[in-house]
Task: inverse folding
């Protein structure tokens, strides 16, 4: 179903299948469409420990990922694995409680499959959240960081979700990502923060493969190349969303201070605790942004 290169014994050009197959995306979109009562305009991905934001959704319909054909299922603690559709702050939304990651063994394009499906269903605004380690020296666990740009270290290293033949029905061969994170949505987030009295950071998110946390030398490298926070998700989803022409807003929940001097080892439990503690703030921010959108 996904990208597969068929090597030929004769040494001729290998045949490469388009990935992900349009028919698979279509099938999953049809499956979800039949089970939810609304046509979502906005999709939200909730990262590690943030899934409870979906509890505020009115008239919710929940579809377990495992039931949706082709939809990848998370193996990570803190990722519920349910798509919840309904109304949030007056908007029709589809909320992903949990996601899959490259480090679980999925390819970059598989991690972006849900984005493709939601696009097919008519979603045009994507709010992507994650847990991230602080690299900027001022950032503290519990802070919310608006993502202004990213450094896709997976993609730069060859694991771009758009690798392989391009299907023009999904987007262009060479999509522009110079404005990956929508300016107007960022402005809406700043206004929402001011209205709700929330303190917000902004910065550049570095997407790495994981699952090992970074060494102090790697963190100093990330700081050197301009990253303010680091995490193991998001970048492939954003590339696929931009490929499909969606507008993207990214918010990181700073879950731990990066260990630049080797004095404080990072732990997944710490990441989950800090993120769960920040959920009320994240919910307030997202609901206020949703209310402000036309
Ligand atoms: N590094 C990478 N990914 C992360 C971190 C981190 O420190 N915290 C949360 N996700």
Result:
């Amino acid at each position: 179903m996904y990208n597969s290169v068929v090597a030929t014994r004769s040494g001729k050009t290998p045949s490469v299948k388009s990935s992900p197959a349009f028919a698979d995306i279509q099938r999953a979109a049809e499956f979800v469409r039949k089970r939810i009562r609304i046509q979502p305009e906005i999709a939200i991905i909730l990262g590690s420990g943030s899934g409870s934001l979906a509890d505020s959704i009115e008239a919710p319909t929940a579809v377990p990922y495992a039931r949706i054909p082709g939809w990848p299922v998370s193996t990570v603690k803190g990722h519920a694995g349910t798509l919840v559709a309904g109304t949030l702050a007056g908007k029709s939304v589809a909320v992903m409680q949990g996601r899959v990651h490259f480090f679980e063994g999925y390819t970059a394009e598989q991690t972006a499959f849900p984005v493709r499906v939601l696009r097919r269903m008519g979603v045009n605004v994507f709010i992507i959240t994650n847990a991230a380690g602080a690299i900027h020296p001022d950032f503290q666990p519990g802070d919310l960081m608006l993502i202004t740009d990213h450094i896709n270290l997976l993609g730069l290293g060859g694991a771009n979700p758009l690798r392989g033949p391009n299907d023009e029905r999904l987007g262009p061969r060479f999509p522009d990502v110079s404005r990956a994170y929508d300016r107007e949505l960022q402005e809406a987030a700043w206004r929402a923060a001011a209205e709700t009295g929330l303190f917000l950071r902004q910065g550049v998110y570095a997407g790495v493969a994981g699952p090992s946390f970074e060494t102090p030398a790697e963190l100093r490298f990330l700081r050197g190349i301009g990253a303010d926070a680091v995490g193991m998700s998001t970048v492939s989803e954003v590339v696929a969303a931009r490929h499909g022409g969606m507008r993207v807003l990214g918010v990181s929940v700073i879950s731990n201070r990066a260990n630049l001097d080797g004095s404080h080892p990072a732990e997944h439990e710490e990441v989950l605790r800090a993120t769960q503690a920040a959920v009320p703030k994240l919910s307030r921010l997202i609901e206020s942004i949703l209310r402000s959108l036309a």
Summary: The helical segments are 22-35, 108-111, 113-120, 153-156, 183-196, 216-224, 235-243, 268-292.
